[in-house]
Amino acid sequence: MDFQQLADVAEKWCSNTPFELIATEETERRMDFYADPGVSFYVLCPDNGCGDNFLLGLPDADDDAFEEYSADVEEEEPEADHPQMGVSQQ
User: Fold this and answer.
1) Pick from 59, 62, 51, 61: which is nearest to 31 by CA?
2) CB 9 within 8 A of CB 31
3) How many domains is the chain built from?
4) Which residues neighbour 18 within 8 Å (Cβ) at sequence distance 6 or greater?
């Protein structure tokens, strides 16, 4: 399927989802999608010789936001959902 046909199918798919097709790059065979509140992903489409495999990707996270998230996660103490069986808790 040529790239324009893939883009047309993507546009039709978007009409039934909260996502919008915000960019297409025919040279890279890439389509970028976005939905509020800030959810985005891209799809790399195969050329005719690659079969039906598509590559789904997520844009790079903002470094500052990632560092803040990582710091919050590291501060949290893991809590057990249930007592460990077979381990003495003296």
Assistant:
1) 59
2) no
3) 1
4) 35, 36
Report, in angstroms and rounded to the nearest whole number, the Rg of the chain calculated over CA atoms.
Answer: 21
Claim: this prediction has a pTM higher than 0.85:
no
Q: Within a domain: residue 40?
A: yes
Task: Residue 22: give the domain boundaries.
Answer: 3-66
Rounded CA separation 19/36 (Å) = 8
pLDDT in tens, 26-45: 999 999 999 988 889 999 98
74 part of a folded domain? no
